[in-house]
Amino acid sequence: MTSQKTPxxxxxxxxxxxLRPDIYRAPESRHRFPNILALEKAGASAEAVETIYPxxxxxxxxxxxTGVAPRTHGVYSHLASLDPTEKARPWCWFAPVLKAxxxxxxxxxxxxxxxxxxxxxxxxxxxxHNIPEIWNPAVPDPHKDxxxxxxxxxxxxxAEVAQVLMPIMGRADPDQLRGEAALYLWNHYRPDLLMVHFxxxxxxxxxxxxxxxxxxxxxxxxxxxxxxxxxxxTSDPGTTLVVLSDHGFVPVEKEVAPLVVxxxxxxxxxxxxxxxxxxxxxxxxxxxSLAIYWLEQPSPDDRRRLETALDRLRETGVVQQIxxxxxxxxxxxxxxxxxxxxxxxxxxFSDRLEGPVVSETSKDRGTHGYLPTHPGMEAVFIxxxxxxxxxxxxxxxxLQQIAPTLVQVMGLPADILAPGKESLLLS
Length: 427
What we know:
Elements (H helix, E strand, L loop, with lengths): L9 E7 L4 H5 L8 H9 L1 E2 L2 E3 L6 H10 L3 H4 L29 H7 L4 E4 L11 E3 L15 H6 L4 H9 L8 H16 L3 E6 L1 H9 L4 H21 L5 E6 L5 E2 L2 E3 L1 H7 L4 E2 L5 E2 L3 E5 L3 E6 L5 H16 L3 E5 L1 H7 L7 E5 L3 E3 L8 E2 L6 E2 L13 E4 L11 E3 L3 H8 L18
Parallel strand pairs: 1-6, 1-7, 3-20, 4-5, 4-6, 9-16
Antiparallel strand pairs: 2-19, 7-19, 8-18, 9-17, 10-11, 12-13, 13-15, 14-15
């Protein structure tokens, strides 16, 4: 990683969390997203992007910047804790967990200036101008926790950007704030690689459903921010603009709590106050799936209890399939998971340990985390630049093809990353 920077090879990478392509392409709503659609017409785009497993934000964003599956890059889920009885579980916020080189690593090593706003798994990363996505897991609303990202940002940068955003603070949504912050970093620091994570659509799609009025309004906000960034970078013809997403979204009708069944079968202990405590079984809910771990060597009785609990869950009709270790290996998923429970269509898993197993209504009306082949889990990829063919349809691609493609866009050899899938032909 010692190649020298070639002038004019700059990259702006904008991630719209949770966006699936048919949402903005729908005929009845196309007029609401003119900037995304204009970029799709002006550049090369995928018909659909097959994501990773589980189809969640943190492992997917790690794949976007490394080009390899979770089994290789080391981020297997959003959570850093496997203890489902823990009250405030930390997330995989910190970049040192990554086991493969990233876009920011190879860009910086080649003499390029890097910047990132709220990019997942970027706290502590070697990024020149960085405000990472991180919050105190004990706070009720992560979007209102400014102290934690300020502590982990490039020294002084959070306060500097916050001063610029002060006129709209309190009346702008999170994506509007991130868009304005991105414009400031672009204009003030002139990074060669700028990465921005937009989150408001994902948040609203969870609460209200992926095609709800609230989610579409949030996507309109992201579209406007994308348009402003596109306009700001047009003066530099050597800049490539990429708009993508990490996974798709589907509506859910029922909330199911697999941990309740596991608890009923004695797979968790109880403390002196009656609350559940960890025994041997770890678990991470991903909405559309749930990963199960043996944290200690299980006894034959433990294994029987788990099989009985899984049979009980199957009887309720909420399980699409049990993904075993061999299948997980083929998917490039967590090597430590014993199995993953895949939810049936219309079902979203929660991490509740008490209450009914099946709730006929769900507090969240949308989710993801299912297998990459689950309809609606498709992600987005659009690239616009001077060497990119306008209107080119790339077909169905893999999320793992994006990073090797982007390093080539920056003028770097694709093999500078960990070995993975082939890059895309954009010209």
